Amino acid sequence: MKYALIVFLSLCITSVFGQKKADKQEWQQLFNGKNLDGWDIKIRGNDLNDNFGQTFRVEDGKMVVRYDQYDDFKRKYGHIFYKGDFSYYRIAVEYRFVGEQAPKGEGWAWRNSGIMVHGQTAASMGKDQDFPASIEVQLLGGDGKKRTTCNLCTPGTNVVMDGKLITQHCINSTSQTYNGDQWVRAEVLVLGDSLIQHFANGEKVLEYNKPQWGGGNVSGHDPNLFVNGKLLDHGSISLQSESHPVEFRKVELLNLKGCMDPKALNFKSYYVKEDNSTCQYGKKKK
């Protein structure tokens, strides 16, 4: 049964990313290049949508994370959440690290950010909570040595790799090291609780399955919200503020769940999860 599932998922992925006559992929732009409409902000020690120090802002058509109003970072970890709940999709960001780290930012947070998937909601976070319980696709900038990006970290979660439960907090990917202020495209394929893959500049660099609640590395949260071992097949998407300035010039999502009836107007050949309740029928326009 396990091998049949793997084969099925492989065929699904091939159909999404390798077919010759696929429908045009309809990527949704989560960041409109103008403002932060559609996003919620949660910074440790502050209430929901209290954007302390204008940490998250828009500059020159980019979503940026800045610390020019900080005298001391004081572990004010922040996250900006796109409003909504997501289960089967591909999320992509184009990011780069710039400038100097915020005063008294921790050493491990130098040129460090992340994409959080299958996370809790912004509203469910405690006021003093540091990270949302989620799966983190860790984004790292190079330091002149080998330092991979699109790694895996697991605040409040665990995953399975090669049939084994992984409780280690962070696992490096096989990506290249990206030094300097160069732009990098990070993508994540998320298929419910069955498969998650990380890509750096189009190269697959990490893969695992069965994301689930469990583990530590989160503080200030309400433990009653989580059941250890419960599989995660949906959740929030957010981007991090961890003390180093970072810029995002693109944040986009390809939905992979929807109408899979070829007779429907909104059928998409690249969908991998059926939700035929969304199907629309009628005469096609000539």
Can you give a write-up of this model?
There is one protein chain. The protein has 286 residues and is mostly beta strands. It contains one helix and 19 strands. The chain has one helix at residues 2-17, and strands spanning 27-29, 39-43, 56-59, 62-65, 78-86, 88-97, 112-119, 135-140, 151-153, 157-161, 164-166, 170-171, 184-191, 195-200, 203-213, 235-241, 246-255, 257-258, 273-274. The strands form three sheets. Strands 1, 3, 4, 6, 10, 11, 13, 14, 15 and 17 form a ten-stranded antiparallel sheet that branches. The chain has a seven-stranded antiparallel sheet with strand order 2-5-16-7-8-9-12, with no helix packed on it. A hairpin with a 2-residue loop joins strand 10 and strand 11. The longest helix is centred in the N-terminal third of the chain and has 16 residues, at 2-17. Mean pLDDT is 93; it is low at 14-20.
